[in-house]
Design a protein that fits this description.
By secondary structure, this protein is mostly beta strands. It folds into 5 domains: about 190 residues, Galactose-binding domain-like (Jelly Rolls, Sandwich); about 70 residues, Immunoglobulins (Immunoglobulin-like, Sandwich); about 280 residues, TIM Barrel (Alpha-Beta Barrel), CATH 3.20.20.80; about 100 residues, Immunoglobulins (Immunoglobulin-like, Sandwich); about 250 residues, Beta-galactosidase, Chain A, domain 5, CATH 2.70.98.10. The chain has a 9-stranded antiparallel β-sheet, with no helix packed on it. Strands 31-30-29-28-27-34-33-32 form an 8-stranded parallel β-sheet. It binds 1-methylethyl 1-thio-beta-D-galactopyranoside.
Amino acid sequence: MTHDHSYVEDFAPGANVLPPRAWLDDDSAKLPLTGDWNFRLSPSVADAPDDLKDPDTSGWGTIAVPGHWQLSGYGAPAYTNVVYPFPLEPPFVPTDNPTGDYVRTVTIPADWAGARVVLRFEGVDSRFAVHVNGELVGWSAGSRLPSEFDLTDLVAPGKEARIAVRVHQWSVGSYVEDQDMWWLSGIFREVNLLALKPSAPTDVFVHASYADGTGTLKVDADVAGTVVVPELDLEFATGDEVTAAVEPWSAESPRLYDGVVRTEGGDVRLRIGFRTVAIADGVLTVNGNRVLFNGVNRHEFHPDRGRALTEQDMLDDVLLMKQAGINAVRTSHYPPHPHFLSLCDEYGLYVIDECDLETHGFGYEPEPPKLPNPVMDPRFRDDLVERIRRTVHRDKNHASIIIWSLGNECGMGENLKAMYDVAKEIDPSRPVHYERDTEAEFVDIYSRMYTDPAGCAEIGADPELYRNLPFILCEYGHAMGNGPGGLLDYREVFDKYPRCQGGFIWEWIDHGLRTTIDGREVYAYGGDFGETIHDGNFVCDGLLFPDRTPSPGMLEYIKVIEPLRIVADGNGAVSITNRYEVLDTSHLRFTVRVEAEGEVVGDGGLPVPVIAPGETVSVEFPPALVKLRDAGRPETWLTVTAELAEATSWAEAGHRVAWGQIRLDEPAAAEPVTGSAPTDVTAGVDGISFGDVRNARLDVWRAPIDNDANPGVANAWRQEGLHRVQHRIVSQGERDGAWEVVARTAPPQLQWGLVSTWRWTAVDGGVVLDLSVVPDGLFPEVLPRLGITFELPKVEQVEWFGTGPNEAYVDTREAAAVGRYSATVAELQTPYVRPQENGHRIDTRWAALTASTGTLRVEAVGTLFGLTVRDWTTHDLETASHTADLTPGDTTYVTLDIAQTGVGTAACGPKLPDRDKLKTAPASLSLRFTTA
Ligand code: IPT
């Protein structure tokens, strides 16, 4: 008889799979099946030989488990966001259904006699059947959920067992696994053989709550035993409830107590966190305290391993989050590897644990003749209900999980309500989230994605809306490419309305896969593997670059969510507010530094009294610093920094947790410049030149960022011709003691232009440029940028006084401090996976650009400028598809902006607010150029 593949298109959740249970740290003997397996990939189910009863693997390759076959030399990854890469006709899937066969022979340990032998898979994408010693054991689905099979009757202790696993890329499960990520298949989490003793528990449920100093503990187990918590002197029977004076668990103070369930058959070790999640008066609390989610959406991702993460990768994520002040994770859009959750318990992160479910490509409310969304289709019900049951059972003992989520982007349907009911039935202690329950019919938390700050404020202000449920943004601040901008606006809403409890940035990390294109290493995105249907670089929208280095968006988020607010109090002192949920400031030390034009002129400790959560204190400057303030210095800034006084489990002593800057001097008005007309300024076809400065001209274009491109803003700009303006010299000559060049910058065909007047005055050691720009005709309302760009011989080093050290735009400048910085031109670039405008430093006071031919110093006379320095043109940047396409030549391009439009987050989210747009209007800039 040929292998029956009907399970691939079967609506059932599986066959012969053991009931779900908690992920346990127990005494069961375990034989890990990680490492090499024999492997063979067939292009379709029909091509997969019917030999799994007794496969001859001599001609096969090998593959490492855990891993994805597309990242192991078999097939290729493919990326789609919403669309399914196959026709919608559930339960059918393409005939071209890559099918991987894994075979491994193990010896069952002799001392496993009497135990139940269980084969456990932590995650297999997307559907698989298991054969052992020639027998079909069963099959399972749910890529990011565990499956267990009982092998007891098929194997013998001391004897070999041949395990053959047939894995299919596509299955009916693919219809409910339409998450925005790479399609990657295979056994991507661990496989273990377990020996479960009949007298040992296989399922344990810890119920640990907290109120007013008292913890209440009850542990249910499927085999009765004794619960021991040595630190609390507790010893009691499973099923009994006890109380004790305890310290509570929270994300900021993740107090865990070690416990154990002792039974005749062996122990189960517990890590107990006492905490109570409650909702009252529209506010979600943990242990009575309002939670503010400074969260991120986390996909599992590594640039080489895809979703097959190592424990180190998971720890890296947790440490980076903790160091950033992030306090919450939504596990978008599937349960993560269980080890990640243990790390969240230990290091302290609130978790929304999301079920493995998304059906986005069906649309939210399909009406006939469209097919029902799977969440409305009764044929999918059992599988979906089983998915949430498997999620809750596996993860129920994690203190970090405070909310269950049914899935992402499925619209509404009966199946979701059934899932909700099951989650509540198993675990009434945690609220349930589902964002597409847009009218709050059954959810416990009202949730939205990408709502603008004003929309959030409306919900915050009106308890009549959405049953007065706590409100969160399960996704916001879409971190694709350059951005997200405007995060501060959200913080203000979250601070103002108790019900607005923060949100989760989309998303944690760019899913750029490391590969080689044309001999150069790149991070690949959709289309790079030859996919015909794909969503390009939408897969690169994280706060981290693929190698886990922080993007400027991450640095901005860190600053916006920092746990202390350090600002001028308006009376000459520093105001410090503690925004922690439970911590006071006794774990922090404060330092202060004063810099005059970026040079340190004083520093020291700042005595700050211990500040309780929610409290604000005003702290006087140390007297010595006040003296400096009065000394009539150049531009002088005081920086207060709060750092960890001692090392924690997640950071070294001295790690910065918050900072604030206060300007001490009074800015003085710029003096008018007088002098004579310089002799060496010439205006030619390509622009204005003098000394090393070549071809200075007006610049209005930026290489569109994702937030320009996706909402169509960039195309509207192109329609206005902004990407291809031409320059006409109207006149040049000496006038009123200056060399005056008048130019008109305008696009072909259109009837608008910018008339710029460039007045050059020779001054000691250089020239001063007074530039004024006046729009004429039917000009566009908004410009990407307005500034000048010129060329210099290749610049090696840039020093500047202004904002830094990282890029900063008008709506992403929270993380930028005023100071003096130095960087190479390469270091000034931000390596967005898809190249786009980057590297702008807003509000620069002066910059010194050093080339082999000398140093050019540019200084703002009055109005500050935005600084951008690159070794390629804007056109090069715009047409590159990966950073490796950009290679320096021997010219450096310097752009000094009067202003630039903000970056926003419109790639997926609200439009850029008017406030952050550069409106076309008369503008001016004065700069002093000197050379050394
Ligand atoms: C939103 C999805 O929930 C998320 O998974 C991701 O795809 C994001 O978009 C885009 O990066 S859904 C969107 C239609 C608001």
